[in-house]
Amino acid sequence: MTDNITSVGGGSRPDTGVSALKGRTGAGAPAETRGKTTIADGVVAKIAGMATREVPGIHSLGAGMARAFGAMRERVPGGGGGGGVTRGVKVEVGERQAAVDLDVVVEYGVSIVDVAGGVRTNVISAVERMTGLEVVEVNIAVDDVHLPDEEEEAEPDEGRVR
Fold first, then answer.
1. More confident residue, 100 or 6
2. What are phi and psi of 90, to 5 degrees?
3. The dihedral of CA 149, 46, 93, 16: what is its sign?
């Protein structure tokens, strides 16, 4: 990676955690390149999280403790249930490049190599298409395998009262 990559929440620069894409300026420049566009790390993390979930064979994102705390947080009113999109996703965003780290749980029986390749392809395509940033790497840690007989911690589909 290069020196222009900053970490989420780190550093002393006021614009740490955002990416700035600068275009040409002046009267001769096209309108779409006049000015500065900033992309926050959270935006890249959400794109990467959604792109990962689209790949067949991915059961969920996040290491064991992150999933457990996330499930508890979603049950608490006002606990930030929207954070599930970025659970298991860490990004570093520089001015022109991004790096993505993912913690995933795969379904039993799938080829982990094929799923990881599909995730990399989908994440790189989505982030580069939506942000214009070059994705320099997508690191994937497979933390668990979801077995078919494992119980889900899902809410019942129907209410108790009819």
1. 100
2. -125, 140
3. negative
Side-chain half-sphere CA neighbours of 33 within 13 A? 8
Taking Cα atoms as reference points, which of 40, 65, 55 lies closest to residue 131? 40
CB 1 within 8 A of CB 137: yes
- pLDDT of 18-54, one tens digit each? 666 666 667 777 877 778 888 999 999 999 999 999 9
The residue assigned the tokens 């911690």 is 153
Q: What is the pLDDT of residues 89-116, one digit of tens each?
A: 999 999 999 999 999 999 999 999 999 9
| 26, burial (CB in 10 Å: exposed 0-12, middle 13-18, buried 19+) | exposed
How far apart CA 71 and CA 84 sit, in angstroms, is: 9
Question: Which positions ≥6 away from 87 have C-beta within 8 Å?
Answer: 49, 61, 62, 66, 67, 70
DSSP per position, 50-72: HHHHTSTTEEEES-HHHHHHHHH
* Neighbouring-strand partners of residue 135: 98
- Helical residues (DSSP H) of 24-111, grouped into ranges: 41-53, 64-75
